[in-house]
Amino acid sequence: MKKTVFTSQAPEPIGPYSQAIVSGDLVFVSGQIPVDLETGRLELENVELATRLVLTHIKNILEKAGSGMENVVKASVFLKSMDDFPVVNQVYGEFFKGTEPPARETVEVSRLPKDVPVEISVIAFLKK
Length: 128
Known about the structure:
It is a single chain. The chain is about 25% helix and about 30% strand. The mean pLDDT is about 95. The chain has one domain: CATH 3.30.1330.40. It starts with a strand and ends with a strand. It has 2 helices and 6 strands, in the order E-E-E-H-E-H-E-E. By secondary structure, it is of the alpha+beta class. The protein is globular. Helix 1 packs parallel to helix 2.
């Protein structure tokens, strides 16, 4: 059995997918991109701000699902340029401060949706 998760505190999907799906005790959050919800604009230049937007969207989706950043067990980070890794890694670490960091891979890809610099997806467990 699965349940769709949606919150207005994260961008609406730009295709035929859900922000997240809960299946059993797990939450599968789709890849999030840096959309500023107040302006609707994409953050394409400042990778630090882009990463903060992405992780804030993930945090909001997880909270709507009944989970949280402390429950993330796996993260997938996709970068337009591996040169951005130090900045993305620093911001990423702030979102997991005080918790066991999840398993993760970070890969450079040739292109991301809407040419954004970073996209992140996660898998988390529900709070008990």
